[in-house]
Amino acid sequence: MRRLALASTLLIAATSLAFAQEAPPLVGPPVEPLAQAPAMASPPPPPPPARARPESSTDEGGLWGVSDRAEQQARASGQLETDPALNAYVRDVACRVAAEYCGDIRLYIMNRPFFNASMAPNGYMEVWSGLLLRAEDEAQLAFVLGHETAHYGERHSLEALRATRARATGAMIASVVIAAAGTAAAVNSPNSASSISDVTRIAVDAVYLGTIASLFGFSRENETEADNVGFDHAVAANYDPSAGQRIWTSLMAETAASDNPDTRRRETRGSIFSTHPLSAERVEALSARAAAHSGTGQTHRERYRAVIRPFLDEWLRADLRRRDYGQTAHLLNQLAAHGEDLGVIEYYRGEICRLRRAEGDRASALQHYANAIAHADAPAAAWRELGEFAARDGRHAEAAAHFTTYLERAPNAEDRALVEARLAQINAQTGGVQ
C-alpha cells in the first residue's frame, strides 16, 4: 500500500506541468510588449489567438481546465521571473518561430535550474532558467521554442492524453489530478520559501513535474515531428540550421559528464523528465537536415549573451545547488568557450572545488578564486572565500585585505555582520597591523 500511495503521489507531481503544457489562455500576458525587447527590431503587436477554447465537455476542454489551474499557480509562484526585458526578449524569440501561433503564447520564465520548456494546449508556455543558461545562442533557444510550439500546433498533448486514457483507469487519472493540485499548492505556498530548503525545493520540483511528464510523455514520433517542424520554423526565421543538432548534442554531453552513474546510464533527456528522450538518431537526423540546407542563418550569440549576462551569477548559484558538479563543470566550460564572463565562471569553478572537497580541490579552489578576481565581473563572494582560506592558513593581513574588499564590493551583504566580526577578530589577533 505504501508503494501504491507513493506511486500515486509521484504520478500527481508530474501531472501539473504536463497538463500545464497545454493550458487555455488566461486574461493578459505577464510580460512586457514585444517592442521593449532589448536590441531587437520592433515587431507589430501579436495577433489574436489562433486556437479557440474547446467545449469543456470534451476531453480537450477538460485538459485545458486542468492547465488553467496550473497556469494560475505559475503566475503566483515565487519562482516566476518578472524581469520585463528578459520576458520581452524570450517572448519575441518565441514569436519568431511560432508561425501563426504567436498570439496564443503567454510566456512564464521560471527560475528553476533544469533544462525545460513547454507549451500547453491553451498557449501557456513555460521556459526555465536552466534552459536559458544552457542555450549557447539565440538560434538554439529559437529551435527549442519552435520545437515546443510544434507540440502545441500538432496537439501532441491531446494525443498523449488519449493514449494514457487507453492505458489508465479514470480513478487513477482523477487521483493524479487531485495529488498534482496538492503538490503544486505546497510548492507555491507563500510560506514555502521559509520552510523548504534549496535541496528539498529542487526535489519537490522534480517530483511535481516528473509526475506530469510520466503521464503525458510524448512519443518518439511526436518528438521527431516536433524536431522537424521546429527546424523548419527556425530556418524560416533565418536562424542557424545547425542549432537543433548543437543543443541536443550539448545536452547529451552534459548527461555523460554527470557525477551520478545512474544519470550517465540513462538515455539523455531534453528535460529532467521522460517527455523528451534524446537519441543519436535524432541528432543525426537534424545534422543531415542542416547539411542539406543551402543557407547559413544567424546565431545572434552576442545578443543572446548580453541578455542573459545579468542573470549568470544567480542561475549558476542555483545550478550548483543541484550537487551534480560534473554537469555544472561541463556547463561552465561551455559558457567559457568564447572567453566571456570569466570572473563569474572562475568563481563558480572555485565553488565546485570548495564544495566537492576531492583530492587537490583545495588548491584548485584557491587558484580559481584568484583567477576570478583578476576580472572585473568577479562576484564579491570571491574575495570572501579568499579571505576565509587566508584566515584558516594564518595569513591574517591577507585575510583582512580580502574581507575588507568583500565588504566594499558588497555593502549590503547578508553576512556583513559576520564578516565584520571576523575582521575584528583578525585585528585583535594582529594588534590591528595590516
Characterization of the model:
The chain is elongated, with a radius of gyration of 23 Å. The chain folds into two domains: 291 residues, no CATH class; 119 residues, Tetratricopeptide repeat domain (Serine Threonine Protein Phosphatase 5, Tetratricopeptide repeat). The N terminus is likely disordered. Helix content is 62%, strand content 3%. It contains 21 helices and four strands.
Entry keywords:
single chain, 434 residues, mainly alpha, Serine Threonine Protein Phosphatase 5, Tetratricopeptide repeat, 2 domains, four-stranded mixed β-sheet, elongated
Summarize the SSE layout with pairings.
Elements: H1 2-20, H2 59-76, E1 80-81, H3 84-96, E2 106-110, E3 117-119, E4 124-128, H4 129-134, H5 138-153, H6 156-167, H7 170-188, H8 192-195, H9 198-215, H10 220-236, H11 243-256, H12 261-265, H13 280-292, H14 301-308, H15 312-320, H16 325-335, H17 342-356, H18 361-372, H19 381-392, H20 396-409, H21 416-430
Parallel strand pairs: 2-4
Antiparallel strand pairs: 1-2, 3-4
Helix pairs in contact: 1-2, 1-7, 1-9, 2-7, 3-5, 5-10, 5-11, 7-9, 11-13, 11-16, 15-17, 16-17, 17-18, 18-19, 19-20, 20-21
